Amino acid sequence: MKSHRLSAPPAAQKGFVLILALIMLVVLSAAAAWSAKAAISGEQVANNLRIVTTAQQSADMALRYCENKMIAGNPESTGSPALTVNMDGAPIPVKWQTRSNWDTLANTLPASVTDSTDSAGIAMSVPPKCIVEELRLAQSDMQSAQAYVITARGFSPDYTADPTNGKTKTGTEVWVQSSLRF
Question: 150, 67 in Cβ contact below 8 A?
Fold first, then answer.
């Protein structure tokens, strides 16, 4: 007679490997999602910096344009439109502070200036502007001097203004100011 060896029944599986694999899958998925979010955030930060830098360069361009026109002493010497200078006799220049004055008193840079300087190929939706105002100085030692405050605004390519109050709706606007004394 043949004897058969009886084997023990198989042990019940506890599923430890399955649980460990699922935990690892969740951790790897979370790491991949965080990495993708970090990459997108980095792109957004870089784009915002580019937009602000473009607006800053636009404002600087307008400021230098008006300064150069004033220093030249003859705003029409380069063949471009004359520079409007506000000389209403007020001791402190305040016209630049009123947004509606930017539509009526501001000098808008000609397209020939903005096109030739824009080497990056970025189209400006609103050209940069500047306001030149006379600054009354106290006379010293019987000498009179002429002084001007120049305020310039530059805009990002995606700039739009709220039609009701003129404030920035989208995009970026940068304001810069300088003074000249002759």
Answer: yes
pTM above 0.85, yes or no: no
- 132 DSSP β-pair partners: 85, 150
Pairing of strands 129-135, 107-108: antiparallel
Q: How many CB atoms lie within 10 A of CB 153?
A: 24
Residue 3 is assigned to a structural domain of this protein: no
Tens digits of per-residue pLDDT, 143-182?
Answer: 667 788 999 999 999 899 888 888 889 999 999 999 988 7
Which residue carries 């009179």 as its tokens? Answer: 144
Q: Which two tokens stand for residue 138?
A: 């106290």
Residue 176: its H or E element? strand 173-181
Domain interval for residue 57? 19-181
Count helices and strands (H / E) in the chain.
Answer: 3, 7
